[in-house]
Write a structure and sequence with these properties.
Length: about 675
């Protein structure tokens, strides 16, 4: 009995394999991908790969026909549909493909579904969606590692990824989810798996840990065959047909008169799908970076309570998954899940009392269990999951969010971006580039090109910062409090815009150097997943308004934080060393090129009287530094002879006329200095 019920349920979900009757769509980028990634080009034999045609009978909510259209970037994202065991998914007017039936079921007994589209039609109505079907029906009795299943799907994913330049979305029903899992966990275009090629996987009733119904059917047949001659014959026929379908689901024998799931019951795939099989245990887990959304059905039967004191109308609930796959198996290993529940009444007495309550208005349809035979065509049943408005809406939302997330961040979008807490200001969301709610006397927080007069092109850069293949942004944030400007912040944003992470430039310093009072960005530039950042801050002895230390570093998102690498610093010291080196070589022309007019020649002349200073090592100071106590005459530092200087580099001398040769240094640009004065004090 168990075997007969399970085989009937499997057969009721049989989907007929048909060829498309619709005209080919107009030539477009997705159509070109379909040609390039078709079965003939990839050597997939009888597998069929095609861009799903749009059907005239499928309409959008506004009544207009479903049609492909690009997203706001002017591009498309490939979506690959993968059917289940013994099924097919070629999309045509017959609507017999796994994803081609009109969405017409709901678990809400008070609701009514009035859509005019299939799941494929739903996806086709999304801007930027290009829906492809991978139909392996002739080989669908084989296991997922067969060259025509998992490896073949992998080739299709590789091809669509290369052709489109976009990560692929895969939607799989039943064993189609396992085929996808096999393809995702094996080498592709690069790397040891296809995590870089697949963004999202949506599964409907995929038996990640196997099908209990298939296992029970086998056990029931084996047990019955021992004592029942008829079951023994059935067992023999199924075994023979299963071996034949390992070659092709259409065997060319009397087995073809059986429904495909029954015919393939003893095939390799039929055996491997049973809970606890060695083949299932051998499958690798999903790569972590691929988002997996698992959808399943939970059929709950109200059965008579067989306890000692149970009354005739007493029932208890028995959860049966989607009658083929348990809820736990369908949802195993997913990042997000949705389980649709349906309740059915198997207690005749309780069913009668519920009917009376409905007739007299003492209960609503939502409060009582449905009649049992509807379980064979309900929204929670394995082959009908893709007809459920609840589960298909979930799938539509997941796919829509994925495509939407590929839209790049824009400068206009950043005007309303979230910002972290800084300068004593709370985290919040910008309005026109500024954080609202800060009292006028308490400072400001916002985008640096909004709050200052510096060009936006220096303070903002775009590129893929989190490795998901979409356009992100690195933006400079400005804040002040208490009348003082604080070090600027580099914030990383993904689509939304959503704040990925941020870092204050005060936190990035070379060993032995403390953070400056402020830090101001000079330029941001995206390079190979990172942001080359140039900024200026203070050295010891600099006044607060000065910034004579120039840093360069590459900032990257490491999955947890924005981190800096390759930090280098530029100060006046490099120019001083080159200036002195030229004079030591008696190259006045080279020295003059590093100095203000006349300073090079003056220094060359004066160093003839202070040769020990020329041979010495300079020590540089800022205007607020503590100068050497024995440096007589340094009170003139900052006077008229040093009017343009921002730093002072001292060379001790023992010659008559002074104790130090002083080079006044002026900053002429980012990482650029010149010797602006020469004095002996």
């Amino acid at each position: 009995m168990v075997a007969a019920v399970a085989l009937t349920l499997l057969a009721s979900g049989q989907l007929t394999f048909r060829t498309t009757a619709s005209a080919a769509p107009a030539r477009s980028a997705p159509a070109e991908w379909g040609d390039r990634c078709g079965s003939g080009r990839l050597g997939l034999d009888k597998d069929t790969v095609q861009l799903a045609p749009t059907l005239r009978k499928e309409k959008k909510p506004d009544g207009s026909p479903v049609a492909y259209s690009p997203d706001t970037r002017g591009t498309y994202t490939p979506i690959v549909m993968v059917h289940g065991w013994t099924g097919s998914d070629t999309h045509d007017d017959a609507g017999q493909g796994a994803f081609s039936h009109r969405i017409d079921l709901t678990a809400n007994r008070l609701g009514k579904v009035s859509t005019t589209r299939s799941l494929i039609g739903q996806f086709q109505s999304l801007p930027g969606a290009a829906v492809f079907t991978f139909d392996y029906h002739p080989y669908s009795a084989r296991w997922v590692d067969d060259p025509h299943l998992g490896p073949a799907l992998g080739k299709v994913i590789d091809c669509l990824y290369r052709a489109s330049g976009q990560k692929v979305i895969v939607v799989g029903h039943s064993m189609g989810g396992l085929i996808t899992r096999y393809a995702a966990t094996h080498p592709g275009v690069s790397g040891s798996d296809r995590a870089a090629e697949i963004s999202t996987v949506v599964t409907f009733g995929t038996p990640q840990t196997g099908s209990v119904a298939a296992l029970l059917s086998e056990v029931g047949l084996d047990a019955g065959a021992v004592t029942n001659e008829e079951l023994a014959v059935v067992r023999t026929i199924l075994a023979a047909c299963g071996r034949l379908t390992d070659g092709d689901i259409a065997t060319g024998t009397l087995c073809d008169g059986l429904p495909a799931p029954v015919r393939a019951f003893e095939s390799h795939a039929g055996r491997a799908l049973r809970a606890g099989s060695a083949e299932l245990r051998a499958l690798k887990p999903w790569p972590k970076s691929i988002v997996v959304d698992a959808l399943g059905g939970q059929t709950r039967f109200q059965v008579p309570d067989m306890g000692w004191f149970a009354l005739p109308w007493s029932t208890k609930s028995v959860d049966s998954g989607d009658l083929i796959v348990t809820a736990g198996s369908a949802l195993q290993g997913a990042d997000s899940t949705r389980l649709l529940s349906c309740s059915y009444q198997l207690n005749a007495v309780r069913g009668a009392t519920d009917s009376v309550a409905l007739a007299f208005g003492q209960a609503s349809k939502a409060d009582v269990a449905d009649v049992p035979l509807k379980a064979l065509s309900g929204p929670c049943f394995h082959p009908d999951l893709m007809r459920s408005i609840e589960l298909t809406n979930e799938a539509l939302g997941v796919v829509s969010d994925d495509i939407e997330s590929r839209r790049p961040v824009t400068a206009a979008g950043l005007l309303s971006a979230p910002v972290p807490a800084a300068c004593g200001h709370r985290a919040g969301k910008l309005v026109d580039g500024r954080l609202p709610g800060i009292p006028e006397a308490h400072g400001v927080m916002g985008l640096s090109w909004v709050e200052t007069d510096r060009p936006r092109s220096d303070l903002l850069t775009f590129g893929d910062l989190d490795g998901d293949g979409t356009g992100d942004a690195a933006a400079t944030l400005f804040c002040n409090a208490g009348g003082v400007s604080w070090p600027e912040i580099i914030a990383f944003y993904s689509h939304g815009p959503e704040l990925i992470g941020s870092v204050s430039l005060s936190a990035i310093n070379l060993p032995g150097r403390g953070p400056g009072e402020n830090a101001s960005v000079h330029h941001l530039r995206y390079v190979d997943g990172g942001v080359v950042t140039q900024w200026s801050t203070q050295q010891d002895g600099d006044p607060g308004a000065s910034a004579t230390l120039d840093y360069t570093a590459t900032l990257r998102w490491d999955g947890h934080a924005v981190v800096a690498s390759g930090l280098t610093a530029t100060t006046e010291r490099g120019t001083v060393d080159r200036f002195l080196g030229a004079l030591r070589k008696h190259d006045t022309a080279a020295a003059s090129a590093l100095a203000a007019p006349g300073v090079g020649a003056e220094a060359a002349n004066q160093f003839r009287f202070h040769p020990d200073a020329l041979a010495g090592t300079p020590t540089c100071y800022g205007p607020n530094s503590d100068f050497p106590p024995n440096a007589g005459g340094l009170g003139t530092v900052g006077g008229p002879e040093f009017v343009d200087a921002e730093r002072y580099c001292l060379l001790p001398t023992s010659a008559a006329g002074g104790e130090y040769v002083v080079l006044g240094m002026s900053k002429t640009g980012f990482q650029r200095w010149r010797v602006s004065s020469f004095n002996v004090v």
